[in-house]
Amino acid sequence: MPKLICDRKDIFDTEALNEVMGAARALPTQEARARIVAHLKKAQASGRAAIADAFQADPFNSRPTTRAYTYLTDQLVGAALRTSETLLHPNATPTKGERLAVLAVGGYGRGEMAPFSDVDLLFLTPYKITAWAENVIESTLYILWDLKLKVGHSSRTIRDCIRLGAEDFTIRTAMLEHRFLLGDADLAAKLDDRLRADLFAGTEREFIEAKLAERDARHNRQGQRYVVEPNVKEAKGGLRDLQSLFWIGKYIYKVQDAADLVPLGLFTEDEFRTFVGAEDFLWATRCHLHLLTNRPTDQLTFDMQASVADAMGYQDKDGRRAVELFMQAYFRHANQVGELTRIFLTKLEAIHLKAEPLLERLFKRRPSVKPGYQVIHNRIAIADEAAFLSDKLNLLRLFEEALRTGMLIHPDGMRLVKANLNLIDEEMRNTPEAQRIFLDLLLKHGNPERALRRMNELGVLSAFIPEFEHIVAMMQFNMYHSYTVDEHIIQCIAQLAMIEKGELIEDLPVASSILKNGVNRKVLYVALLLHDIGKGRVEDHSILGAQMARKIALRLGLKQDEVDTVEWLVRYHLLMSDMAQKRDIADPRTVRDFAKAVQTVKRLDLLCVLTVCDIRGVGPTTWNNWKAVLIRALYRQTRRALEDGMEALNRENRGTEAKKALREALSDWPRKDLQAETARHYSSYWQGLHVTAHVVFARLLREIGEDEILMDLHPDEDRDATRACFVMPDHPGIFARMTGALALVGANVVDARSYTTKDGFVTDAFWIQDSDGNPYDAARLPRLRKMIERTLAGEVVTQVAIRDRDRVKKRERAFRVPTHITFDNEGSDIYTIIEVDTRDRPGLLHDLTSTLAAANVYIANAVIATYGEQVVDTFYVKDMFGLKYYSEGKQRTLEKRLRKAIADGVERAAG
């Protein structure tokens, strides 16, 4: 008998059931049924509690737990059937056609059940179902439904099973794992024989192909194993992949246990241990998910990740949260499952492939391979394993040959590499030829992503660069990053390769032109490979990563000046992104400070391309036109400053150019009106907005009457946002009032500019997106305008209405986003820069601007940078006298008020 996680009697007391059923025989039928069902409900509850308690005390012991739930279900199904057959529909002399066998199929048939798994049953009859059998089946099901079990059922003859299994691979797979429960054992045995002889035999290749297609469709539906909210059952690297291996092994080789695959050569001993370890971990995770949610949940959402990590006993360690350590373990197991699946299925596929037709073999051009390799089923294989292992460098050369020929690596070759990673030692790493091969994999063949991903999955990348091991499968517990750290790096490398091949010229004209004009590719690829190598430790990952990158770059054989540049790029790989997204790049001081940090055009070019690849590698939707506009503008202004001198950034020069552009755009205006317009604005206005916005404001100011508020809403396609321009008489708190109106209509502010004119008006420009991060389409603008007008007219109490929108979704509450508030008097010549780094929520910007307005703070600009659940709101401010906030006392007072506003909002968001 398989081991269960607790005593069988604690799970289900069969003697107590027998007593209840014995007593029920003397009762009327319906009363007897009611008493038995009541007993089963109590027994079910106590059994589930016993299993859950035992599992929570030993939270990784999943296999005996899944068997325990199966055992409990067996007893409940058996009790329901006995009640139906003996009490509800007794049949003392059944005919030959009134035989009935009950079988468990699917996961239940395999004996693996999570707390809320489906109960899949097959009611098997020898011929067409009789009235007695129909009554028994119906009564059995009603009892099981009364117990709140989710039952999947079918009533079939053996002939039905063969016919339907031939038509549908899902049915065929379910019946592959049938297990006799109760009833006529001879009938069940006959089904087993017929399935083998009439359905499974001779269709092995067909079954493999179906399972491969099913796997691919499932992965496309669920996402890759690197997706940060994986489905434990269905996603790549999940339980279904492991089950597919066993199904195929059972279908072809009739094995009853995964261990039986080892003597057949389909698993090595090490691979089987990996299989068992991954299966245990994934089942433990799934069982905890079910118990925590009290329902059949298989999706590891962010909030459940933290809860499962806690249930499994993970604890914070070395500056990393318990949930991050748990998810790294999860992704490592998923990675191993993926590798096992690939090796196992490709080997089986190769064994069962049909031979190619003779003519096709004659005329099909096969790639030539170097000595020591051979081609087996269009995969590159190792001709002589002993000769291959005699030279350590062959463990790298295999990947070079695979890239050169464009072929996949044969599973036997992958196995050989994985089993001999110990050959990649310090001596080998420092060999010039090893350095040459590795850099060629990055630089020479045009597809570095493929080589890096396979090397990472087999452990070669971590063996060659040991510092990489720490970040393999490392989860970044936030909503910003879509991938684990190692996969993020590989995605970045893939982006760089695509730019080099000219595939992204329209999307990335600046980065494409930089690469076309030429950069040090070796420096760029190595820096991109190592830019996040320092993550997951207490120290700042940029500083630590730079120190690590210096040692690694030297080990890879780079020249000293190249090593210096790699180190600088890793140290400052976030600088351009931060400057572009968190600072006002219209302010000359921003560009001047950035130019001083970069120092040379060569570094600027490298950093720009690295920044673009880094952002695009975060996730499929992270890069957008808004970020593109900011990065391009910062790059072009900085390059101009570095080439022509800092004087090119002079405010007056830029103001003169902007006024000239406005005159040309409004050439039909009378000269007097143009002079009035160019004279009414301060210099910051001219450098902070594009001429298109200057034209809009000029027209609004020309039309405005006393106490009027005029607005213009216009899609800004270049920035993936809607530009909202407002003109009104200036008065204190107007900026906060505007943010409140926009928050109320559900608009997310991604950038804002506020300027006062010399004649007492305020010109506010906001760039807004809807809740999905898209600009408002033209059809929605009239309603948006109406809502803003009502809010500004005071028809809606902003603060009250915003509360209804201020909720944080349940799945996002597990994120910890500490609040940091900084004051910078050096980053701007005119303003104090207040940077608020905290959790994002719909009403946050309004809370912050209202607080600043109440403290008589004048807000000139607001720059908003959002990173998933985290937001950095940057305000360019002056006090009521037009001065910076130099006083530490005033800064502390403002910080205290801002923190209170954030805390009050967090309480509202928590409901």
The amount of helix comes to 55-70%
In the CATH hierarchy, what is the architecture of the largest domain at level 2? Answer: 2-Layer Sandwich
Q: What is the end-to-end distance?
A: 51 Å
Q: How many distinct helices?
A: 40
CATH fold type of the largest domain:
Beta Polymerase, domain 2
By CATH reckoning, the class of the largest domain would read Alpha Beta
Count the beta strands.
15
Gross morphology: globular
The Rg value, from CA coordinates, equals 34 Å
The assembly state of the depicted protein chains is single chain
Strand arrangement within the widest β-sheet reads 8-9-11-10-14-15-13-12
Main structural class: alpha+beta
Major β-sheet profile: 8 strands, antiparallel
Note poorly predicted spans.
354-363
Q: Strand fraction band?
A: 5-15%
CATH homologous superfamily name of the largest domain? Beta Polymerase, domain 2
Mean pLDDT: 89
Count of spatially separate domains: 6
